[in-house]
Amino acid sequence: MRGPLDTTGHEKTLVVGLGNPILGDDGVGWRVCQSAEEHWPVLANIQVTFECYSCGGLELMERLVGYDRAILIDAFQPGQSESNPEAIPARVVCCAFDEIASSQADRLRSAHDASLATALRVGKELGAHLPSRIDVVGIETQAVLEFTEELTPAVTAAIPLATNLVFQLISGR
C-alpha cells in the first residue's frame, strides 16, 4: 500500500471521479473530474492528481494511499431509489466524507467489498498514509441504469458548477 512520493514537501491532493461512464448519469463523476483536470490552473504549492475509477471500498482506499487530501466526485440518487417528487434534478452538493449518511457512504462499495468508511478505518489501523481530509462532491441523478455514454441535459448542465466546487476545495476556499 504505497502511494506516490512527494519530494517537494507540498500537499498532495487526489481528485477522483467515481462511477460507470457507460451507465448514463452514473458517469458524471468521471465527466466532472475530466473537466477539472482540463481546466485546472497549476499552482506551485498544490500537487493535484486527477483519476477516474469504477471502484469502491478496499480498492478505492488503496488508491488513496500516499495522498494528504482527496476529493471524491460521484452521482447520487435521492433516497437511494425512493421516489422523491420534491427532488431537484442535478442538484450539486458538497460535504466532508465523514458527514455522509451511511446509505450514501455504502454506495461507495460493491457487494463483495467493505464500505469505504470501513476500508479507511482498516487502512489507518494498518498504518497506511491516507488523506486526513476527504471531501465529496455529489451530483443528484435519476438515470443511472441505462446503458448509454450520454448524460441527461440537467446533469450535463451541472458539470460547470461541480467543477468549480472541486476547484474551491483544492484551493481551500
Look at the helices and sheets and give the structural class: alpha/beta
Mean pLDDT: 83
Q: What fraction of the residues are assigned to beta strands by DSSP?
A: 15-25%
The total domain count is 1
In DSSP terms (H or I, runs of 4 or more residues), the helix count works out at 5
Provide the CATH superfamily: HybD-like
Q: Can you tell me the CATH topology?
A: Rossmann fold
CATH C-level label: Alpha Beta
Strand order of the largest sheet: 2-1-3-5-4
| Major sheet description | 5 strands, mixed
Q: What best-fitting shape do the alpha-carbon axes yield?
A: globular
What does this 3D model show about the protein?
This protein has a single domain, classed as Rossmann fold, CATH 3.40.50. The chain has helices spanning 28-39, 57-64, 102-105, 116-125, 153-171, and strands at residues 11-18, 46-53, 69-76, 92-96, 133-140. It is of the alpha/beta class and 173 residues long. Mean pLDDT is 83; it is low at 1-7 and 80-86. The chain has a five-stranded mixed β-sheet with strand order 2-1-3-5-4, covered by helices on one side. Strand 1, helix 1 (28-39) and strand 2 (46-53) form a beta-alpha-beta unit. Helix content is 31%, strand content 21%. Helix 1 packs across helix 5.
